[in-house]
Amino acid sequence: MSVRLLVLLFVVALVGGGQASARAAPALSRAAPASARAAPASAWRWPLDGGPPVVRRFDPPAEPWLAGHRGVDLAAPPGATVHAAGAGTVVFAGLVAGRPVVSVEHAGGLRTTYEPVEPVVAAGQWVDAGAPLGTLRPGHPGCPVAACLHWGLRSGERYLDPLSLLGLGRVRLLPLGG
Fold first, then answer.
1. Ramachandran assignment for 14, one of left (phi > 0), alpha (psi -120 to 50 degrees), beta (any other)
2. CB neighbour burial string for 101-111, b if at least 16 within 10 angstroms, e if fewer
3. Which terminus of the chain is more exposed, N or C, with fewer CB under 10 A?
4. What pLDDT shows up at residue 1?
């Protein structure tokens, strides 16, 4: 096999055959710990019931300080129950810039965030995958419907596509050269 074909097979296997943005695929391979990448797909779930429509995809900035979309927006009715995408410890449940946010720390150094969510959990509380975190509030900026959940994923300081947890992130091949 050629080196290019081996690299292609490795990238596809690494992100589960989904699709991740050109900047997200390398970020996932370098930033997500092996334990997080090796987690079975059943360890992660949608934060909203029914596999909600994605109304805005992950679009990270070229540089950390530039504008971009550091998560995905999922359409749902106001008041929908928001669930933990994976098991972990709630590390924040409160207001950020006047909007209610919940953050959960997972094994392997991953952190998911959910906004705007009126929390029913508190910092320090353990939650299983699928446990209710709170209810979705309307008013997320840029949402084209009554309410959108902004779902984010980080590994350390690096933002990742949360859809990659479900094997649904975008994959684009990058040149082998520097």
1. alpha
2. bbbbebebebb
3. C
4. 37
Give percent of the chain above pLDDT 90.
Answer: 43
CB 91 within 8 A of CB 166: no
Question: Hey, what are 124's tokens?
Answer: 């320090």
pTM value is 0.70
Give the span between the Cα atoms of 150 and 74, in whole angstroms.
Answer: 7
- The phi and psi torsions of 56 (rounded to 5 degrees) equal -150, 125
CB 172 within 8 A of CB 21: yes
User: What is the dihedral sign for C-alpha 149, 82, 65, 18?
Assistant: negative
Q: How is residue 110 written in tokens?
A: 């991953």
**Tokens (6 digits) for 49:** 């019931």
- Provide the token pair at 37: 């990448």
Domains of the chain: 3-166 (2.70.70.10)
> pLDDT digits over 70-124, tens only?
788 999 999 999 999 999 999 999 999 999 999 999 999 999 999 999 999 999 9
